[in-house]
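Worked Example 4.2. Consider the chain below.
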Amino acid sequence: FSILYTENDTELDTFDFFAGAMVDDPDVSQDSTTLSTSLTLAKPITDWYDQRVILSHSEQEYKGRDNGILWYLYETDQDAVTLQSDFFLGESDTLTLGYTYEHQAAANSGNYDDRTRQVHSLFIQNQWNCQDRLFLTLGARWDKYDDFDAETTYRATLAYHVRLLTGYRAA
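Applying the procedure from the previous section yields the following structure tokens:
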């Protein structure tokens, strides 16, 4: 189980049409808060198969102010459920298959009506570990949004772990 809460206050620059550039404006700021929670339930089914369920919730709020007056208020909420299966095909080969459902909601007070979106995703990934130094990962993800076309993305990574000697020196 994890919880993350952050608060930020940022001073924003504005565009000055007379100067034709971004300028410092000490009266314009943005406050933001984020709350993210996640619960992972994992169960080894056999020595070659694990099942995982991940439940998550996230809330974000952005408030823009100019001279202390609220300029905009943008809020988002996201709930997700992920079902993931890990298959250990060998000592150094793991195949991951999964499905994610997301419900996203956003509101921008005074600018547009509340918006919602549902996303269904399928993913597959294979990770190989060669002699604990060379790592290869190949994956694909298909996302189906209820408000526009589906999209497939791919990923390939190659990493090599360099073992460095660490020395200590006292003077």
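Residues 57 and 122 are 19 Å apart (CA to CA). Confidence is low (pLDDT under 50) at residues 167-171. Compare this with Example 4.1 before moving on.
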